[in-house]
Structure formats: structure tokens, C-alpha cells
Amino acid sequence: MTTPKTDSPRDAKTGPRDFIREIVDEHNRTGRFDRRVHTRFPPEPNGYLHIGHAKSICLNYGLAAEYGGKFNLRMDDTNPEKEEQEYVDSIIEDVRWLGARWVGIRDDEPSAGVIWGSNYFDQMHAWAIELIKKGKAYVCDLSAEQVSRGRGTLTTPGQASPYRDRPIEENLDLFERMRTGEVPDGTKTLRAKIDMAHPNLNLRDPVMYRIVHATHHNTGDKWCLYPMYDWAHGFEDSLEGITHSICTLEFENHRPLYDWFIDAVNEGRTDDGSGPWGNKIHHPQQIEFARLNLTYTVMSKRRLLELVKSGLVCGWDDPRMPTISGMRRRGYPPEALREFCRRIGVSKVESTVDIALLEHCVREHLNKVAPRVLGVLRPLKLVIDNYPDDGVEWMEAINNPEDVSAGSRYVPFSKVLYIEQDDFRETPPPKYWRLYPGNEVRLRYAYFVKCTGCVKDAAGNVVEVHCTYDPATRGGDSPDGRKVKSTLHWVSAAHALAVEVRLYDHLFTKPDPDDVSDDALRAAGDGAAPAEPKPGFAAGDWKGNLNPDSLEVINPAWLEPSVADAASGARYQFERHGYFCVDKDSHERLAAGGSPANVAAGLRTGRRTPAISRCHTDVAADPRVGRSQPGARRLVFNRTVTLKDTWAKIEKKL
RNA sequence: UGGGGAUUAGUGUAACGGUAGCACAACUGACUCUGGAUCAGUUAGCCCAGGUUCGAAUCCUGGAUCCCCAGCCA
Questions:
Q1: Considering only CA atoms, which residue is closest to the C1' of nucleotide B7?
Q2: How much is the CA Rg of chain A, to the nearest whole Å?
Q3: Nucleotides of B under 7 A from a protein CB
Q4: Is A291 marked active-site?
Q5: Contact, A445 vs A475, CB < 8 A?
Q6: Could you say which of A10, A17, A35, A44 is catalytic?
Q7: Residue A149, SS3?
Q8: Predicted ipTM of the assembly
Q9: Chain segment A603-615, per-residue pLDDT in tens
Q10: Burial A255-271 (b: 16+ CB within 10 A, else e)
Q11: In the complex, which nucleotide's C1' lies nearest to the CA atom of residue A489?
């Protein structure tokens, strides 16, 4: 418990210092940006946000909050061909849910305060004309392929475009024609005149504008001339007065260009506006950090989109996805995501964080706040032979041992219960403390029971366990002080609520989904049996590492009746199992005596692999479902994360 | 073979010339009406080689390895 000297007030609260905070401190020391801190999160609305974006949001918003600065949410929408309103909406919802508060945010209007990069198109266009007039940009007639060939290679310089020295007036005229729409897509671009021999390829006369005749989600058909990211992004930051333009490592090579564009505009401008071009524009500082990678999942938007489009998952918010919406649906609390982002830190080292840390943060938070309930996933009938046939007692159960203020509830107890199949063994392995003939255990909040035997079906499966109870142990304590090694959870068969439970596991079977070495081994024909079949996937395909057991649906599972009215999104701990939350699919009413209609939520018709794409139950699998609760609500629970399971580890080693 | 980054226990992250620390994971044990939680403990690290220095993860030199860049994507 050594406490390092904390010179900075931030140390304790916000975790370790990182290189970005050091840079900001330095700027504040030297007075650059007048001690102002203004950050932003600038997603392109071409997909849903994932946990990697959460890292960026927490960093950017956290910085602004810590330093008393401002934070903008801006859609970087410069490519009308890939961007959609659905993505805009999801991004706004996710950022808000994570807890980031941007300038102008309001609760009554989701998009209030959200900034669109496309709203700066007029200003950027004016600056482009300015660069043409300064002799720093030209209209190029080369095709995409010709531009590419002329760029040279990593080790050889590029060739100047034949249009490089076009007269300014001609450039101006052509650029205007590009804007008005008379120039077809792909035939002309506006390029910056920098240096075709520059060792940084980004400075070999990069394209500033291309022609795209497409309808933009925000500006409609106003433009057919669209700015490239490199040209647009720095100005978006500049116009908003962003001080620290924080982005990921792959943009490090672009920083010189980002700086060049702003310097080019500022040439001939002065602080007091006395120059020929007026006032200087703001020049933010770009800082790059390493993006987040997580084990057992993929993080690129391209791959996530591929999973969604191919139907291998049930949409962007599939609880197995590393998307913010998927994690929300899975039951991950925003507090856990924020804590995770705080703990992983920020650096320039490309790294892959163990998903166990994320799961730890989820458990840590849920342990403190989630009410406990009893639920049996794989039922085994337990009959208490010496209990009255029609007896029912309501046992008091603590809602949350971590939080006394959470109070208690009452759970019905009767002669016939369900316990977990795993909690009985006819012949117990070593260190097995649960129910087996002759052994006494405690039923949580109820009684001590002693196993007297079991009943098997024709196939030899245990279908029923019998026991006797000790009435003196009511509530779970023995007056004579005798101990039991184990406490089991249970539900009263007559009172239990039938629900659907979806058990999720990692999306991939390997920490690194790109590890396709198994395929190579198979291809080499070394005789080793493949670890698992990969139906439908080519050798070497990362999708071949998808976990076929990433979703298991249990229907019915049996819960204590107190959760009958649980709201969608409500989170619980099912004791001894894990944390679960009510899925949004929980909305239908059960028809009297019938089975729940199937909600094909997120069902896609695309190519599917069994198990991977199974998004829901096909029908009520058990005729008992709904049997006693006509008109009751269908309840679907997602397993957010399991509890740590020491016994599973012991059993594995046996 | 060009340019730009990076390298500290299994993983992630501190150290700013002065005892290599923290978290997760793993493993022990204690405790427990959740084999949960909690508590205590253990294992385990400076990419390599030189140099400067009383002293180097830190400064210098050389090397190795990994990542990014040749979209009219971002």
C-alpha cells in the first residue's frame, strides 16, 4: 500500500499520468492555447461505435472534463457514399450513454449540439480557392490510376503531373466547373502542390477534392465536390478552436500534411488581420495514440460490417459484438466501460488488452449494484420427502450482500424444487461438496437438506433427486452449529417463472482471430486432427475462428417469481451463475396456454453458419413454458458475464 | 533499399539519473449462507551490445524486432 507522492490533483482520481496529459500540462505551462483545452470526438458515420471508440471518447471527454475545457461531438462526414443516418443516430446514442457531455448537449433533443463537418464545406471551399490563388493547389486531369502510378514508390520519387503548372486562372475556372457539376466523377481532382519527391508519400501532391455525384445525408445534393479527409479534418478542428486533435497512430504520417494545409492558409495572414488574406486561423496540435485491440474479438469497422452483413451475428448490437451498442445490450454498464478505459491507459505502444480485464471491470461494478436472484438454468427436480405435500413458505432473501440498503425479498419454498443439474452427482469426484447420496447441503435462505437417493430413467439419466430436510435449520442456520460445505440455489417448481436465457461467450475461439495456423497445419497434412471443423469457411479465413458456442439459448430456464416485472435492461446477478440483464426482446405477452411467438430480432437472411448466427430460440422449446402464466410477459435474459468459477477450474484439472 | 513510430513480468501500464511499482491473469492460503465477493501471499519484467556516470529502464552510439505509409477511404 505505498502511496506515491501525488503532486498533481489528477493522480488519484483519474489514474496514471499519460504522455498526452503531460503534453497538455506543458502547453498550459508555456501558455500555448492560452491554457485552453478543447477536444473532440470526430467519428465518421459509416458504422457503429465499438469499445475502441470508447477509449477515444473517454480520453477526449475526460481531458476536457479534467482541465475544465470543452468537448465537441462532430460527425466527420466527408464521404457521402459510405455514410448513413442510422449510423449518425447510433453514434449519438452511444456517446451519450457512455456519459460524455458535448457542447450544446440536451436531453430533449438527441442531436442538439452535434456538429457536422459537412457544415464547413463552404469555408473549406473558399480556402481551396485561396490556395489556388496562392499557387499552392492545381486541378489535375489524371485518372486515379495515373495519379497512383505517378506517386512513385516508397523508395523512388514520384513524377510531376503534366497539369501541375496550370495557370492560376485556369485552375480557378476548372475548379468552379468541378463544383457546378459539369465534370464527371473521377476525371478531375484538386491537388496540393507540395513535393513529388517527398519521402513522406502523403506530401506528394495529395488530392484535396474529388468529384462524387451522390446525395449526402446532411447536405443533400448541394455538393458534388467532396473534400478528402486530410484536407478537411484539420480545418474542422481549426474552425472549432480545438486545441488538441487527438487521433490514432496511423495518422502520424498525416500530421505534416495537416500542418502544411493550415500553414498554407496562414501564409499571408497575420494575427491582427493586416495581411493580404486577413486573420490567421487557429492551428491545433495533433497528438496520436495507439488504438485499442482486445483479445477474442475483432475491432475494425470493416470486419464488424462484414459480420453484420453476412448474418454471422444478429446486427451491430448483437451482444457478442465489441460495439458499444452490443455491450449495452449484453448488460455492460457504462461505468465499467469507463473504468476499463481508465485502467488500460494511453500510450503509443500498439497492444492487445486481455478481454479478462474488461470482464473484471464489469463484474466489479455489477457486484456492487446488481440485485441477487435465484435462477436455475438446467433444472433437476429435487423432492423433499419429509416436507408437507402442499406446504409453501416464503423465505426472506438478501437482495445484495454488498449493499445492505438494497433490502430483502421473499422467495417461495415448497416440497418440489428445481436445482441445478451440476449440483448433484451420484458418485462425487474429489473436492465435490455439493449434493450426493448421504451428503448434507444448505438450500440458500431455506433449509439444510440431506440427499437420500435419486431416480433414473430407462437410459440411466438422473431425473429426480430425493432428500429430507431439517426443520430446525429454517432460514439456513443450524442451531447445533453443524456446518455444511456447500450452499445451493433453487426455485420452487410450482412458483418458478419460465424465461429464455441466452448464454454468450467470446465471439472467437482464439485470442487472436487472425491466428489461422490450424489451417496451415491441416493444409500441410501432418495428420493432426483439426481442433474443430470450420464449415463454410476457407482455409486462412479469420471467420473460421468464430466461436460456434458463442451463443447458447436455454428455454426455459426457471427464475424466482420476484423478477416477473423486470424492466428491459434491468441487471441481476443470478446467484452462483453470473450477471444477467433483461433483453429488449422481452416484450411479448404469452398467449394463454400457448407458446411465445418468435421474435426474429435482428434476424438476417444472409448466409449463416449454425450456432454462430443463431440469434434467438425458434419456438418455445418446452411445453411447460407459459403453462401457468397466460398473459404473462415473455422474459429474455442475456448473460452479461459469468461469476468466477473456482469449481470449474478444479474440475478441469481432474 | 525511403519516411514515420514503437520496444519494461503472460497481458496492459508506471518510473523523467538514485530501492523497477500498480492492475488484470495465473497459483497458494484465510474467510464465507453465492466454490461469488473480500483478505493475505506467491510466481514473473527493463529488446540486444557497447559507452558516459559514484549510480542508467531513463543520457549517448550501434544493432535487432514489430507497426504505419504508395485510396479520388477515414
A1: A349
A2: 31
A3: 1-8, 10-16, 21-27, 33-38, 66-74
A4: yes
A5: yes
A6: A44
A7: helix
A8: 0.98
A9: 222 233 344 555 6
A10: bebbebbbebbbeebee
A11: B34
